[in-house]
């Protein structure tokens, strides 16, 4: 039986498409919302119904709480799934949904306020005995306060947004001369992304690894973890490649991190899906970083190694259902990798590359999954995150997963916008990555070796795809119309079939 009859997805892009598909499999009708820039977006086309929410700027559309709640009520939705980003970790939005009689597919507003707020989460984690990265216990009130605290911690320091995630509102500050401008930029970005300018400071650890633990908690007091994800391949604190499990983590460390994550979740009465993030230093000591009170972009790698549909679990748990399995029953198998395919130019410092996608040929094959929010002919707007798709593969071990990812990337052809595919190709070939020697400084340390990527290979793939499409169109046009013989479709297929060895 479906947990809900109709769900509104308060988001856009690939995550909106992902939630729509999970709802369809569960027999749930879907309501999409879209800004004026997203009228032709894929999630609008796939949902059972779609409603205009406002102008292109997110603050007037995907961050407009009153408007989103009004559409949800008017459309007859029983629940609201926030996806990730935008209002996914906004306690006011969760409370507004509850007050309107809607179920928020996520933790209760109180849990978001405690753990979605990074400063409050640090206090909660400390009270549970988790080690913290040294830093402020409250949001920074003034530049003078930030200057004093940074001097106490010692440079370099990190500025972080108190709400949200995804690297938004984060700045690394190497010295006192950079602090004021970094504070201004971090506050501006936090306001734009999450509607809240609050930021705090932490001591920056040298070349740590970013490892996070996926948790699930029901309303009946049970919490389990689904193992860890390694997210150390980042640029400016924006994750680019994720994998599960982590090549660093052994069974003992996994047990310790998982137990700490579940202990923290239970202490604050957490419910639904969440992620407890840690930094791991070079001596394999782990420090609490933050809690993401939502679905993560990288959730598919956990799905592939555990066989658990996390969006389906979110819907079940939001409806009050029990987990129905214990920690001992959670098992993992093999290795999964995810590459984020964004409309950015790695050779130009990952500069955004909005525009119309004139060719889109994603890879396929066994153990290859593409979660996309675009299609050939779609427009990538400048207003939002440039993520177009996620390429996820599974292998029996890490080596097989890397080889499969390299093969899939070679098949992935996109034209009309620049993409991060050349960057991912270069990383999959890099000996440090292949050996599992990772850190959050990997991209900066490797420099042009990985950031420029193999642009030539990508261009060749696009040209090859265009030539293939052109030749195919000419063959179909030259094929005689069907008479009493084989159909035109069958005739068109035969020349292609002859090109492959028997």
Brief characterization of the structure:
With 502 residues, this protein is α+β, with helices and mostly antiparallel strands. The chain has 18 helices and 22 strands.
Helix-strand blueprint:
Elements: E1 6-9, H1 13-25, E2 29-35, H2 42-46, E3 49-54, H3 65-75, E4 79-81, H4 91-99, E5 103-104, H5 109-116, H6 118-127, H7 143-153, E6 157-161, E7 171-173, H8 179-194, E8 199-203, E9 209-217, E10 223-235, E11 238-244, H9 251-267, E12 272-280, E13 286-292, H10 299-306, H11 310-318, E14 335-342, E15 344-345, E16 351-352, E17 355-356, E18 359-361, E19 368-372, E20 379-380, E21 387-395, H12 398-411, E22 413-415, H13 421-429, H14 431-434, H15 442-446, H16 448-451, H17 455-478, H18 488-498
Parallel strand pairs: 1-2, 1-4, 2-3, 4-5
Antiparallel strand pairs: 6-7, 6-8, 9-10, 9-12, 10-11, 11-14, 12-13, 14-21, 15-16, 17-20, 18-22, 19-21
Helix pairs in contact: 4-5, 5-6, 12-13
Describe this structure as you would to a colleague:
- 37% of the residues lie in helices and 23% in strands.
- It is of the alpha+beta class.
- It has an 8-stranded antiparallel sheet with strand order 13-12-9-10-11-14-21-19. Strands 3-2-1-4-5 form a 5-stranded parallel sheet.
- Helix 4 (91-99) packs antiparallel against helix 5 (109-116), helix 5 (109-116) packs across helix 6 and helix 12 (398-411) packs antiparallel against helix 13 (421-429).
- The protein is globular.
- 50% of the residues are buried.
